[in-house]
Amino acid sequence: MTDTPSEPVPVAVDFNGPDFAAMLAARLCHDFISPASAIVSGLDLLDDPAAQDMREDAMSLIASSARKLADLLQFCRVAFGASASAENFDSRELEKLAQGVFDHVRPTMVWAIDSQSINKAASRALLNIAQLSASALPAGGVATLKGVTAEGRFLITADSLGPRARLRPEVLAGLRGEALTEGLGGPWVQAAYLHALVRAAGGQVAVEAAEDRISLACWVPA
Question: How far apart are CA 151 and CA 201, in angstroms?
Answer without folding.
Answer: 16
